[in-house]
What we know:
Elements: E1 12-17, H1 21-24, H2 32-41, H3 43-56, E2 60-66, H4 80-86, E3 110-114, H5 126-132, E4 137-143, H6 148-158, E5 162-166, E6 170-171, H7 175-185, E7 191-193, H8 195-203
Parallel strand pairs: 1-2, 1-4, 2-3, 4-5, 4-6, 5-7
Amino acid sequence: MSLTGLASPEKTALIISECQKGMTDPGYSTNDLLSGQVVKRGTIGNIQTLATTLRSRGVQVVHSLIEPYPDWRGWVVNAPLTGSIRKRPLVDGHPSTQVHDGITVDPHDIVLHRRVGLTAFYGTDLEAVLHGMGVTSIILTGVSLNVAIPGTTMEAVNRGFSVVIPADCVSGATEESHEFALKTMLPVLSTITTAERIVEELRA
């Protein structure tokens, strides 16, 4: 592989972060700024196309969902963001926690329901599952570039994974946060590329 950080298909996983109706679908949105950026950038369609192609190449697809208990049991309000999330209907059983209709959940996909925390590895068995499958490389997509994507990237690097981020498959809540994350923060932790380049590499 010539794309830095990208392993062979059987050693690679595609993580789709928080692409739930309440985060990415304006009809259910609890974050209008973020869902607006997702629509503007065509993020959902790009992720769906990438996921479909990567499945056919043998890449494991993982959906990371934030889905606290209905009574918010265990959810600590210890930051402005955790307090904001606590005011939303993003709890187990509510339609806003469901995966966006534009993204297919295949029977072979792994779906992680995170009850607490702000990133994909925290409070889940993601690390153990990926290591158990022999995965060394993560393709990270979804939302948002404000918190979950940078946080998950750093968690992945700390756990020995390399991270590749297709810029056309992620969104921030604003133009400014989107550009800052992709141009300033994430290039020192991951490889920033496009979905097309990833597909070309895995085909090769």
